[in-house]
Amino acid sequence: MTDLKKTALTAEHEALGASFTNFGGWHMPLKYTSELEEHRAVRSTAGMFDLSHMGEVRVIGVDAATFLNTALVGNLAKIEPGKAKYSLLCTAEGGIIDDLITYRIGADEYLVIPNASNRETVAAALTDRAAGFDVEVWDESEGISLIAVQGPASAEILSSMVRADEVELVENLSYYAHTTVTIGGQEILLARTGYTGEDGFELYLPHDKAGALWRALLEGGSDFGLTPCGLACRDSLRLEAGMPLYGNELTTSRKPQEAGLPVVAFSKEEDFVGRAALQQAKAKGLGRSTGQRLVGLKAAGKRAARKGHVIQNLDGTPIGEVTSGAPSPTLGHAIAMGYVDVAYTEPGTELHVDVRGKPISFEVTKPPFYRRQTSGT
Hints:
The protein folds into three domains: 10-53 and 143-240, Probable tRNA modification gtpase trme, domain 1 (Gyrase A, domain 2), CATH 3.30.1360.120; 57-137 and 255-290, Alpha-Beta Plaits (2-Layer Sandwich); 292-377, Aminomethyltransferase beta-barrel domains (Elongation Factor Tu (Ef-tu), domain 3), CATH 2.40.30. Helices cover 22% and strands 31% of the residues. The chain is built from ten helices and 19 strands. It has helices spanning 10-15, 35-44, 64-71, 119-129, 154-159, 167-171, 207-221, 231-240, 256-259, 275-283; strands spanning 19-23, 26-31, 46-50, 57-60, 84-90, 96-106, 109-113, 136-139, 144-150, 178-183, 186-191, 200-206, 226-228, 292-298, 310-312, 318-327, 334-341, 350-355, 358-365. β5 and β6 form a beta hairpin. The termini are far apart. One of its GO terms (cellular component) is cytosol.
């Protein structure tokens, strides 16, 4: 345990009686009470997560937009300051190194958020790809904590805690946008983003201020049903929302077309890393008429398929593999995602998953499995 990395909030989790797990080399809270209770809190009121193991890589310079357009497959130059974009970092062969969110802080400044397990890989790749551009790239992860507040009551909770003159900033913040607010005298980068399928926010601030903010949020959110949540329910929430997880749905052996991610900006001018390979894959119909594609799978019962289980057609022929699977607390039946041959990707197609030697019937569906009721935000 002494070799595991700890976040600035580890003492807060211990004080709350959290059970911990090794998550990619990090000592992270798995749950505080039960993952079912925490899952339902996010769907009904609000949940709070420590995501400080995620990475933060700053990119600053007059060439920042052009550089990121060569390093990532999306068009980062098109987003305005105050906005964010989901994109991918790919290999020259088109494989997915990581999926990440990039915030445009200013005209010449971006903040790139890689997954925890890929932080060093992403920082190194961006540094290597920055050669020849007038930019600075540095990994700020060691100094920044990240807290997420997710659920229907999240906006109300944060509106009650910011300064009176900042309430409209919270209420009017659009999805995949960010602003700066003050809570308890601490300036915070507030983004309306998340990984649960609910309305929610992610709050970035220095490590040494994280504990005070965590405690303030718990106290201020108590009347709204705010519940501390661990990684166990985060996984079931993202699966219901049909959101891919790096290492499961996304790997260097898969291309964006196979994952069903329409985020490759072929229309931009820059010759981004992986462009030729991805154009060739598109021309060959990868994920549409050839190869495999990621699909959702739903069962009538609660018996779950798990990562690595073989997907079969009704004759028992292997046609793919499950990448994620679990019983859905919200829907009451098992759900999964997996890659299957394109001939079996039509929604409504019945397939079998070999679960410990027994074929379990699943129906192909298009994620997400769960959609929240929106109110225009």
